[in-house]
Amino acid sequence: MALLSIRNLQKKYGETIAIPNLDLDLAKGEVVVILGPSGCGKSTLLRCINGLEEKQGGSIVMQDVGEFGKDLSWEASRQKVGMVFQSYELFAHLNVIENILLGPIKAQRRSR
User: Which of 62, 78, 87, 99 is the most exposed place for a label (fewest CB within 10 A)?
Assistant: First the structure.
């Protein structure tokens, strides 16, 4: 079983289809690149996985955890998925690693 399995993910904005029935399996340790032109749904996909955008259909299932938003609340699901936004709102006085680690250290009280 895949660590993260996405089936028939659908996202629309009005009549505009941003994600039409996407299937994706990610294995533990696998590195994936989501590549495409501006406006093709890359950020929307990441936001749906993290529950920041409401999907219109499909499922997002994590191995040994269950379906996000169904077996596990979106709040609890977000604790299982890391996301770094593509904007420039990072803390300028911190390096990249410090910016990435800030959430787990502060919110989850993890050690560096």
Answer: 87
